[in-house]
């Protein structure tokens, strides 16, 4: 019997003996599976969004950020406390606060010093982080067709690359517009800002990104199917492939700003909220008992202070940029710079949680 088949049989026996974890099952269902179905259901809308003014996308992004996006990282200060047994509340808050101050400040400084390089770095970091979030969600679902770290890293590359790379291929004009808005906050000359982002949007770059994403997707899905042939769960693999297909369609069809706004709130943000509920014993017990509202209320209470703090960061960036904020595009750009500043320390906290839960360990299940 193959390694994968042996692991699958062992897991099935354990499930039969101990029963499914109701909290993990509920989190997977409410924070990953149902939202993925909802996104798939929105595909007809996605097809017409390129006809909308870009301001509609900006409003959608702002709403998604208000509802879920900003809050999903606002419990980072409690993650070490809840995911480890040897970390006090004071130490948890202190370490995370210092990380946010130092790393977030470094990101803002990078935008002032080299805005184009900082923009490209933000895209790469978001690619990593959104893939990181999806792999963690797959481990919560306990899929068994990604048993090795290499296969999970490949899944990360595909899952994170879809929202970051596919819009560059399908909708370069709006993607470029957002880049110019961001760079334009720090380069007052509009012509200079436009020229600065040229290398990112040349046909050769777009062709390379499209070819890479197509190949990576094919290899990832193909390797998963090999695991199925060796005994892994076909249902889990079909769900994984279906989600990848839905994301490909979403980002090929939808206007980029609109697409990211919906994805941030409905997909990435919710999956991370679900993961944080599982490391909070009281919230996990509530959702396991069917009290989804109670679990969300507890999360909302914990996230409220630093969610407000996130919006204060947006305001601080808006007040400090040389070009000022005079249009909806400027507001979006300021929000993205502030989000970039918060993303780097957030990625560090999530990477620590990944390590703690064994997400990248062969056979690890989060």
- Total number of helices: 16
Low-confidence stretches: 1-19
**Number of separate domains:** 1
Output the radius of gyration.
21 Å
Number of strands: 0
**Major sheet, described briefly?**
none
Element order: H for helix, E for strand? HHHHHHHHHHHHHHHH
* Coarse structural class: mainly alpha
Q: Beta-strand percentage?
A: under 5%
**Broad shape:** globular
Organism: Halorubrum rutilum
Region (Disordered): 1-22
Protein name: Probable beta-carotene 15,15'-dioxygenase
EC number: 1.13.11.63
Strands, helices and their partners?
Elements (H helix, E strand, L loop, with lengths): L2 H16 L3 H20 L1 H6 L5 H16 L9 H5 L5 H25 L1 H26 L8 H22 L1 H13 L5 H7 L6 H27 L4 H20 L2 H24 L1 H8 L3 H29 L7 H30 L9
Helix pairs in contact: 2-13, 2-14, 4-13, 6-7, 6-16, 7-8, 7-13, 7-16, 8-9, 8-11, 8-12, 9-10, 9-16, 11-12, 14-15, 15-16
